[in-house]
């Protein structure tokens, strides 16, 4: 089976709703017009907001800790890929480059966590063409 065609996307919007448990981010094609929302939690939304605005908390929070731990072990986040959409749930992978030139590792992740880490790592975010086609049919919040 051939690898799916991956499309580069960017974070185009963060939609924060006071008093709500669910927040949204909107991803958009880098070289196109399609985009789609992903429902995320408050913690992930706050982390994404902090990274976008360059705000560093005094003490490391979960995403900063994960990023620092990976870096301390010599790993680097190469890319994040959103690879599937099943029953309105997105599935993602973190691609890690490890020391010594070993084959890159793919780690299953929630898209919200993966995107928070990708923004911190300044690495590409990609979406499988099939997922982008399905998801871009949805309404943006």
Could you explain the architecture of this structure?
This protein has 141 residues and is α+β, with helices and mostly antiparallel strands. The chain has a single domain, classed as Roll (Bifunctional nuclease domain), CATH 3.10.690. Helix content is 29%, strand content 38%. The chain contains four helices and seven strands. A seven-stranded mixed β-sheet has the order 3-2-1-7-4-5-6. Strand 1 and strand 2 form a beta hairpin. Helix 1 packs parallel to helix 3 and helix 2 packs across helix 3. The longest helix is centred in the middle third of the chain and has 12 residues. It is globular. The mean pLDDT is 91.
Task: Put the structure in a nutshell.
By secondary structure, this protein is an alpha+beta fold. Helix content is 29%, strand content 38%. Helix 1 runs parallel beside helix 3 (111-121) and helix 2 (62-72) packs across helix 3 (111-121).
> Which range best describes the helical content: under 10%, 10-25%, 25-40%, 40-55%, 55-70% or over 70%?
25-40%
Tell me how many strands there are: 7
* Main sheet: strand order: 3-2-1-7-4-5-6
Q: Give the oligomer, counting copies of the same chain as homo and different chains as hetero.
A: single chain
- The portion of residues forming beta strands comes to 35-45%
Global geometry = globular
Please, what is the average pLDDT?
Answer: 91
Biggest sheet features:
7 strands, mixed
